[in-house]
Amino acid sequence: MPYHRLDVFKKSYQLAIELHTITLGFPKHEQYELAQQLRKSSKSIPANIAEGMGKQSSKADVRRFIQIAMGSCDESRVWLEFARDLKYLNKQDQNFFDQRYQEVGKMLRGLINRYS
Q1: DSSP structure string for 1-45
Q2: Could you tell me the pTM of the whole model?
Q3: Contact 73, 104 (CB under 8 A)
Q4: Which residues of 22-46 are buried (b: 16+ CB within 10 A; e: fewer)?
Q5: C-alpha span between 8 and 29 (Å, rounded)
Q6: Residue 32 Cα to chain centre, angstroms
Q7: Are 89 and 32 spatial neighbours (Cβ–Cβ below 8 Å)?
Q8: What is the distance between the alpha carbons of residues 106 and 74, in angstroms, rounded to a whole number?
Q9: Which of 26, 35, 43, 53 is deepest in the core (most CB within 10 A)?
Q10: Along the 116 residues of the chain, how does pLDDT read in single tens digits?
Q11: How many CB atoms neighbour CB 74 within 10 A?
Q12: Which of 50, 51, 49, 66 is nearest to 116 (CA)?
């Protein structure tokens, strides 16, 4: 299946766009620190989904890229906690994004199981 048709790709891509926009409002001194880390980890999720689904040389290869995407998903959740605790995001916004990343994580686990 082409990556762009997967719901998990669509959701993670949209989340990355939203977080990119939000992080542009972080303080200037955080643009090359926390904001950049959050942008990179959130964009890594759909990028790894696309790469894994594009290669499909083996089930193990696809699974490996989806596992990398899962790691980036959890990493994004940690950066969101930092953003909340440093007062760049309020608790409500952080919870909103965290719930969406939990959903993406479940979808990624399902995709991994499909290629096991």
Answers
A1: --GGG-HHHHHHHHHHHHHHHHHTTS-GGGTTTHHHHHHHHHHHH
A2: 0.95
A3: yes
A4: bbeebeeebeeebbebbbebbbbbb
A5: 32
A6: 19
A7: no
A8: 11
A9: 35
A10: 789 999 999 999 999 999 999 999 999 999 999 999 999 999 999 999 999 999 877 899 999 999 999 999 999 999 999 999 999 999 999 999 999 999 999 999 999 999 88
A11: 12
A12: 66
- Tokens representing 66 are 């989806």
**Closest CA relative to residue 82, chosen from 33, 46, 20:** 33
Q: Which residue has the tokens 């696809």?
A: 62
Query: Side chain identity at 10, as an amino acid letter?
Result: K
Among 36, 112, 45, 33, CA closest to 74: 45
